[in-house]
UniProtKB/TrEMBL annotation:
Annotated localization: Cell outer membrane
GO cellular component, one term: efflux pump complex
Official protein name in the record: TolC family outer membrane protein
Organism, as annotated: Candidatus Paracaedimonas acanthamoebae
Assigned keywords, A-Z: Cell outer membrane, Membrane, Transmembrane, Transmembrane beta strand, Transport
Cited InterPro entries: OMP_efflux (IPR003423), T1SS_OMP_TolC (IPR010130), TolC-like (IPR051906)
């Protein structure tokens, strides 16, 4: 009788395992819809779990959920819009610097009332003199300050352009990571859901077998331990899905879709470096954060020339034209004059030397910053490269492990029928497969994310490269426009336009 019940119990266990395994062997990208666990999971219908997600998506058109997420992140992110306005403000430094090459024209006007008394003749008189004039001043020499100001402004704008590129990459990378993290968390939730159901059923079977003396307290305790652990993992996975969803909404600006389709590997569309050494070289050449540091250092060097120019003579050519009217004498005087003014700084209280010393310190600090950023760029390049190829290797190993684990489960079940393996061996084998599946999902997410991170390290990740149908921001266009204004007049946005640019959430 005991043997008969044992066979029936094992048969039920085999059917349950077969059902679970059949539901977890698909190779397509999973569609995960988190739900709460039914109170009796042993009798609940199992959701379809697809274990082996494809690394190649069927389509990467703009309608793909992944592409839609990137489009939404790019168009809704306020940081990118604010950076455009910041860069436009920086662009105005260039016409301000050019102003040093151009003449300045000033008009003057004066009206006065004078009253006086001649003490000898005891005569009181008054007058109402009026003057008007025009001054034209052209600087000829000021120690190279205008040239230094121009160099400073040009490098400042270039640094801002690099900063804009870095922010654009950061927004896209955050969106990519948010999408893949949510995809992975949903996968893990569904894997843990199936695991809970399996171990709950195993616990029920263990109790039934214990009632007839087939197994002892140790097996029951192990079954309870496995079920409780699986349930705890499920609860944690459910919380991680909620956290990943919140991050997705924050980064993307929209609710995530019900289905998250795995994107294709970026290497299918873009050629990635063939070696780590090539990646390090490309990163040091094109990384926008490093470029920003380099241009900031050049601006600081120009700052030294600006400060030093204050020690040099200043030479201006000045032309004056004036007219004076004296109402008392009823006379009108016209005057035209030209002169050369030379201003030689002798002593300014030491402020000019303080400025020179400060500019040298700033330039040194910026130069050190370049070295620091270069090291960080190289370190990041190494990390993303190792992540990519380590995760690629993990995917292959885990895929093999999963298949081997499934074979192991089947063999263990068969051996348990003839008494060569125990009930616990089946539980242990199932745990190993669950862990391997979760590891596979995480490795897949890391692999896909690292491809985009490599592009970012090189400074090549952009909306244009990803072919996103969004309005590209031309940060150079505004600088080119305002630098060509010789007189300086241009369109000025109204306060209403400024408020509209801020938008609303």
């Amino acid at each position: 009788m005991k043997n008969t019940f044992f066979a029936l119990s094992l048969g039920c266990s085999l059917m349950m395992i077969d059902f679970v395994e059949a539901k977890t062997s698909s190779t397509e990208a999973p569609v995960v819809k988190p739900k709460s666990i039914p109170s009796k999971m042993g009798t609940a219908k199992l959701s379809k779990v697809k274990t082996y997600p494809k690394l190649k998506a069927d389509s990467m058109t703009t309608e793909h959920p992944f592409m839609q997420a990137l489009i939404q992140a790019y168009t809704s992110n306020p940081e990118l819009k604010a950076k455009v306005k910041e860069q436009n403000a920086l662009a105005e430094e260039l016409p301000k610097a050019y102003a040093g090459w151009r003449p300045s024209i000033n008009g003057t006007a004066m009206a006065a009332y004078n009253k006086g008394t001649n003490q000898i003749e005891k005569i009181t008189s008054s007058s109402h003199p009026k003057t008007a004039g025009l001054e034209v001043r052209q600087n000829v020499f000021e120690g190279g300050k205008t040239l230094a100001n121009t160099t400073y402004a040009e490098n400042l704008i270039l640094a801002g352009n690099a900063s804009f590129t870095a922010i654009e990459q950061s927004i896209l990378l955050k969106a990519i990571q948010a999408y893949l993290d949510l995809w992975a968390r949903r996968q893990e939730l569904e894997i843990n859901r199936t695991s809970v159901r399996f171990f709950e059923f195993s616990l029920e079977q263990a109790k039934a077998r214990a009632d007839v003396g087939e197994i002892g307290l140790t097996e029951i305790a192990e079954a309870e331990f496995s079920y409780s652990g699986a349930l705890a993992d499920f609860i944690s996975a459910e919380a991680e899905v909620q956290n990943a969803t919140a991050t997705y909404i924050k980064v993307i600006g929209h609710q995530p879709p019900k289905e998250l389709v795995l994107p294709s590997d970026i290497a299918e569309r873009v050629t990635l470096p063939s070696s780590l050494e090539e990646l390090k070289k490309l990163s040091t050449d094109g990384n926008p954060t490093l470029q920003q540091a380099v241009f900031d250092a050049k601006s600081a060097e120009a700052g030294i020339d600006i400060a030093t120019a204050d020690l040099m003579p200043k030479v201006d050519v000045v032309g004056d034209a004036g007219r004076q009217l004296n109402s008392r004498r009823r006379t009108r005087t016209h005057e035209i004059a030209a002169r050369v003014e030379v201003k030689i700084p002798i002593y300014q209280g030491g402020s000019e030397w303080a400025s020179i010393r400060a500019s040298h310190q700033t330039a040194a600090q910026k130069a050190i910053g370049v070295r620091t950023v270069r090291r960080q760029v190289i370190e990041n390049a190494i990390q993303v490269w190792e992540t990519r190829y380590a995760s690629k290797g993990r995917i292959k190993r885990l895929e093999t492990q999963i298949k081997a684990g499934e074979t192991r489960i089947e063999g263990t079940r068969q051996e348990s029928l003839v008494g060569e393996r125990t009930f616990l061996d089946v539980l242990y084998a199932q745990k190993d497969v669950v862990n391997a599946r979760i590891g596979f999902v995480r490795a897949t997410s890391d692999f896909l994310s690292s491809g985009y991170q490599i592009l970012g390290a090189m400074g090549n990740l952009s909306a244009a490269l990803l072919k996103l149908p969004v309005q590209k921001h031309n940060v150079n266009g505004y600088a080119e426009e305002v630098s060509g204004h010789y007189i300086g007049w241009g369109d000025v946005p109204s306060r209403e336009e400024i408020r509209d640019a801020a938008g609303t959430d």
